[in-house]
């Protein structure tokens, strides 16, 4: 429209000539969706109310009319996501006529539908729920426990003789696969994505776990760092794991590393964000470094994939804190470093996916990448949910479950 034909919006215009900006009827829902995606991408502490308002093209004042604080927004979305998952696992009345396999499939597909619909918001629940206040965290834990119990019950119906401890491991693995799609943006249409992940969950629910407990398999503590910069890095990761990145100061890191002052940290790292990036680069490089030797030193893609899985699990068990922090705090890495790390991760996943498609030629490259992400997430999820030294969650069992996800069938 030409400039001379634009309608004036001056204050002295007659009221009938002024454009009317109507508040959308679903404004509150828009705010909730945008904020949840922002929290999932950048973390609770990495997002301000002003940034949320900017994303919505409204003023901060207008935002505060709907929600009194950032925490109110965060709390609502975290509990909503856990609540709809707890509702999704309820069986309909007609399920009394179904067999155990159909009842289990219904619950898995219902949870997948929730996960896919809320894909861009799911990271909030997976990695940021630690920032809920105590009462709200108890509510969330109760809702997640209801979801967990429903899956366990379905697996118990499928396999009535399975020990309860093994059901717990399989349930955690199924929930990890379902939630893993919030960790990446691999594009697969909804129907084949649902079928792919439902198939992985079905394989997990029916698999036979290796026998034995982890009493003989205790993970040795990581080797003590000898150089000061390594000590700083190790202590920082430990603190980030316990408190979350925003809850740790450079002063805290210096004290944990036995340094006299925070200025000593800056001799090795420019900032706390630089320190986090260095830790993540180490984790990414560890995964990259074993790909070539594993492929060259084994006979065929299936054997190479198994060797990669074993090496990944070994490294993750040795540095559980770093593995968890990588997933939970990637949004706090400086933007340029985050891009570099994402590119390294993407290349690593591509190499794994090539092996998957070589073993399973019926899968597309994108489908293989989805399964790789699910298998990698399984390691950190089982360690976080069941505890780092859970006697039933052994290295051998984690390796086996990753193989079930990636290879599709048991040995």
UniProtKB/TrEMBL annotation:
The keyword Cytoplasm does not apply. The keyword Transcription regulation applies. Keywords: DNA-binding, Transcription, Transcription regulation. It comes from the Bacteria. InterPro entries: Homeodomain-like_sf (IPR009057), HTH-type_TetR-like_transc_reg (IPR050109), HTH_TetR (IPR001647). Transmembrane segments: none annotated. Residues 48-67 bind DNA. Residues 25-85, 226-287 form the HTH tetR-type domain. Residues 1-26 are annotated as: Disordered. Residues 9-19 have a biased composition (Basic and acidic residues). PANTHER family: HTH-TYPE TRANSCRIPTIONAL REGULATOR BETI, HTH-TYPE TRANSCRIPTIONAL REGULATOR RUTR. This is TetR/AcrR family transcriptional regulator. It comes from Nocardia jiangsuensis.
């Amino acid at each position: 429209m030409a400039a001379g034909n634009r309608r004036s919006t001056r204050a002295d215009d007659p009221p009938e000539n002024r454009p009317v900006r109507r508040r959308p009827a679903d404004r509150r829902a828009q705010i909730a969706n945008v904020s949840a995606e922002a929290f999932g991408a950048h973390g609770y502490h990495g997002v301000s109310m002003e940034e949320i308002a900017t994303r919505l093209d409204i003023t901060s004042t207008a935002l505060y009319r709907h929600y009194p604080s950032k925490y109110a927004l965060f709390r609502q979305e975290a509990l909503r996501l856990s609540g709809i998952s707890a509702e999704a696992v309820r069986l309909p009345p007609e399920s009394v006529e179904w067999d155990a396999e159909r009842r289990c499939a219904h619950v898995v597909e219902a949870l997948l539908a929730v996960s896919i619909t809320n894909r861009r918001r799911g990271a909030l629940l997976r990695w940021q729920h630690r920032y809920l206040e105590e009462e709200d965290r108890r509510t969330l834990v109760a809702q997640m426990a209801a979801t967990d119990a429903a899956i366990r019950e379905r697996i118990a119906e499928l396999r009535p003789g399975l020990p309860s401890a093994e059901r717990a491991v399989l349930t955690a693995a199924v929930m990890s696969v379902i939630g893993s799609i919030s960790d990446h943006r691999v594009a697969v249409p909804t129907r084949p994505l649902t079928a792919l992940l439902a198939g992985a969950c079905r394989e997990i629910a029916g698999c036979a776990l290796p026998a034995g407990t982890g009493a003989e398999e205790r993970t040795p503590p990581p080797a003590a760092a000898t150089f000061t910069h390594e000590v700083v890095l190790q202590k920082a990761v430990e603190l980030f794991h316990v408190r979350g990145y925003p809850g740790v100061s450079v002063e805290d890191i210096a004290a944990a590393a036995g340094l006299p002052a925070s200025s000593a940290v800056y001799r090795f790292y420019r900032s706390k964000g630089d320190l986090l990036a260095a830790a993540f680069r180490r984790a990414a490089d560890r995964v990259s470094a074993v790909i070539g030797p594993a492929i060259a030193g084994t006979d065929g893609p299936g054997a190479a994939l198994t060797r990669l899985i074993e090496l990944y699990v070994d490294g993750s068990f040795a540095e559980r804190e770093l593995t968890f922090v990588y997933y939970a705090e990637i949004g706090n890495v400086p933007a340029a470093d985050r891009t570099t790390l994402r590119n390294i991760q993407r290349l690593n996943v591509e190499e794994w996916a090539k092996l998957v498609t070589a073993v399973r030629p019926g899968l597309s490259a994108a489908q293989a990448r989805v399964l790789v992400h699910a298998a990698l997430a399984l390691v950190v999820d089982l360690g976080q949910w069941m505890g780092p030294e859970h006697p039933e969650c052994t290295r051998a069992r984690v390796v086996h479950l990753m193989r079930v996800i990636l290879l599709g069938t048991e040995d």
